[in-house]
Amino acid sequence: MRAKTFPHLTGLVLTILVVTASSCSSHETPAEKSQTPTETSSFREVSGFQADSAYQFVADQLSFGPRVPGTKAQKACADYLESKLLNYADTVLRQDGTVRTYDGKLLPAINLIASFNWQAEHRIALASHWDSRPFADQDTKNPEGAILGANDGASGVAVLLEIARNLKTLRPDIGIDILLFDAEDYGMSQVENSFCLGSQLWAANPHRSNYRADFGVLLDMVGAKDAQFYWEDHSYAWGGRILNHTWRMASRLGYAKHFIAQRIPAIIDDHYYVYRGTGIPMIDIIQYNPQTGFAPYWHTHDDNLDAVVPETLNAVGNTLFHLLFNPPNL
């Protein structure tokens, strides 16, 4: 099967006018009223998610080097991800476009979309970004040079690849779309909307006309040892019921130490642009510490394979895999 492309998007320039790294916005609506348990009446146990396989998917991505837009590593890793998804999914679409960075560069962006049960009316969108940061701005020893981004980028993609591998043979009744966004990490916090360029490109030009999903889940930094995931405030505002259901799912599976049902400040991530562009309520599973913020290796050269452990990949991946077979009432 060959991947389909977006010929009408080739050469498209997404001009960034305005991303704050973390802030609350006036567009927020109150959290959904249903904050009570939303367990489905019958819980379906599923097996097959393998943490070691997900860990290998992280290592595979890192083998290409930093996956920065406009580099050979970007093209090589995009081809690798596309080939993997073609092995698993019903259809794979490749969205090639051009984005304008905060410093005025025009760079290629490659989004990949893999669909399962593509004719199903009810759908869940799963997303992560696959690029890595072009500089280590948080590294006090060596701020120069691109980083590998093992946790920040590769971990979420690895979980979704492992889920895709399982979906090849074991399908829920609903449709699943896996969205791998490029050019998420090529930005500066001082320049609004300079991050998440790939998701902005996709939100303005979805892979299907009038594309809709019942809800979505974004994975960002989901592989570190002892990582904890809280209720990010944007996610709470437009997807409180989904957050509640997902965190209860994690607790039921034995991962309560990772999934903490406590609100943290809003973070502008790919899920923000998906919601703003399409109205799809997408929640963010992202590592964050209310006292210290992001992990100490965030945006440093220490975000390498040593920053990721199979145990956390399994906690996130197995929770998400079960969510597909036990979604909240749609």
Task: Describe the protein's architecture and organization.
- It is a single chain.
- The chain is an alpha/beta fold.
- It has a single domain, classed as Zn peptidases (Aminopeptidase, 3-Layer(aba) Sandwich).
- Helix content is 30%, strand content 18%.
- It is built from seven helices and ten strands.
- The protein has helices at residues 51-62, 72-88, 150-167, 197-204, 233-252, 270-278, 310-325; strands at 4-5, 13-14, 91-100, 106-116, 123-129, 175-181, 215-220, 229-232, 259-264, 282-286.
- Strands 1, 2, 3, 4, 5, 6, 7 and 10 form an eight-stranded mixed β-sheet that branches. A two-stranded parallel ribbon has the order 8-9.
- It starts with a strand and ends in a 5-residue tail after the last helix.
- Residues 1-40 have low confidence and may be disordered.
